Amino acid sequence: MIHHLKGKLIEKNPTNLVIECAGVGYFVNISLHTFSKIGEGENISLFTHLQVKEDSHTLFGFSEKSERQIFRLLLSVSGIGTSTARTMLSSLSPVQVRDAIANGDVPTIQSVKGIGAKTAQRVILDLRDKVLKVYDINEVSDNSNNTNKDEALSALEVLGFVRRQAEKAVDKVLIQDPSLSVENIIKHALKNL
Questions:
Q1: Taking Cα atoms as reference points, which of 150, 128, 153, 142 lies closest to residue 179?
Q2: Are 104 and 121 in contact (CB under 8 A)?
Q3: CATH H superfamily, domain 4-62
Q4: Class of CATH domain 66-134
Q5: Structure-derived torsion over alpha carbons of residues 147, 148, 152, 158, reported in degrees to the nearest 10
Q6: Burial grade of 32 (CB within 10 A; 0-12, 13-18, 19 or more)
Q7: What are the domain boundaries of the chain?
Q8: In a structure prediction context, what are the per-residue pLDDT tens digits for the chain, which is 193 residues long?
């Protein structure tokens, strides 16, 4: 695995660049975020992700470790490939992607070209816990919603459901409609359990 590249910038385009390291020129795919961070200086350093397929080896470069980390998290979601992940990081900054996932912000993720409502919801559902844990973020939501969520979870536990399963079901419901009352959260969550 190639962890990073440090060398001379030979060519720079909005979607890719060529970097020469010890006489070898590497063609590296980049996001617009990385493109904007790289100056016109000769020597640059990039963190990389190597995608190995049956018919190709494709190198992706990032100006920051955090961007590479978000890119790799996105790749772990079913239905998100390298081109979609790169498009997301070109449309939104890594911090915007991270915050949208942490806050369950479907419209922001859906604003990226090629991502529909279901894919946006899947990204949030699959990555929210990881993002909250990795970046040590406290969930950002209004107190009434948190109270409703807590009450719904308590009720589901009383009904005999395991907390972890109940939490997944409630989160799924709240992603679709954060304004639901406690009763409606429970009704919709029961359909998912």
A1: 142
A2: no
A3: Nucleic acid-binding proteins (2.40.50.140)
A4: mainly alpha
A5: 40
A6: middle
A7: 4-62, 66-134, 143-192
A8: 789 999 999 999 999 999 999 999 999 999 999 999 898 778 999 999 999 999 999 999 999 999 999 999 999 998 899 999 999 999 999 989 998 898 888 889 999 888 988 998 999 999 988 888 776 665 544 445 567 888 888 888 888 888 888 888 888 888 888 778 888 888 888 887 7
